[in-house]
Amino acid sequence: MSDEIIRQGAFVGRGNTDFAGGTLPFEVRVEDSDWNKPGYLPTGEKQHGKYGDRLNCVTQSNHNDYEFQLNQMIADKTIPVGHLKWLSDKGYLDENGKVNFSEKYNSILNLTAKYKGNWLYIVANDARKNGLIPQSMLPENVDDTWDEYYNPDQITQEMLDLGKEFLTMFNLPYEWIDDISFENLVKQLQQAPFQIVFPNHAVVEIKSKEELMNYYDSYVPYVKEKEQSEVTSYLKLVIEPILIPPAHIKIIKDANSNAVGIWFPATSPEELIGWAKEAGFPIPRRADGGLDWDKFIQGNLTLK
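-> structure tokens emitted (304 positions)
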């Protein structure tokens, strides 16, 4: 759809316990403040179909914001390896290799159907309560009727459990941006895109300029440009990998040199053989085809 559509679904308001700007620790993730890069862009999804508009732009833009951030971490190789493996194993990466969350899951749980739209802080807090699940688990169908899309019977215990597991892997803090000077917007964009509102519609700001800004929409074309002055609210959503060193992984030093490395035990012989092949090691076999452990293992290690 194009810009002549009358967009609806985003309401103005803040939660009583919401943080104001400057509360969250600041981290530079994108030096040039420009999130409009192919590797960062989410897979485009429309919120308007054959039976009308789902009015869930707040959930769409919330998810797009988080997807931008995780795609950036993956593209720039800053995401912890264990978190990337978990996302891949659980089905969060779509056919384009991009992180893709289920808007239907959160749109149902955050009661968008009841409100005929939503508030940014309610949607943000729903994500913090119920987590995010992959779209592969509860797929989108833009041509669902209203009742089909928002049918709560689609939510299973398996989905709720995975959403809770997601929250053990990622933290989802947020804060409102009150200083909307050009200099501060450019600075804050170094950490994360913004979820923003211009009258009745929520999108993601991905690049700020003196008078204009680029934003990512849930109507095609997905990347657009608009006057910065039309924005009425700025919410900075941040997604952070939760770093808990696994008990079975150790940082070790070679007793005979200054070399230091990470010891990551394989969970099965097959996994170990796969790693060895990838690294270029020969795979010695016995006559019966089994692994010759005596020739395969190159030394012993004592861990504290």
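The first helix runs from residue 57 to 75.
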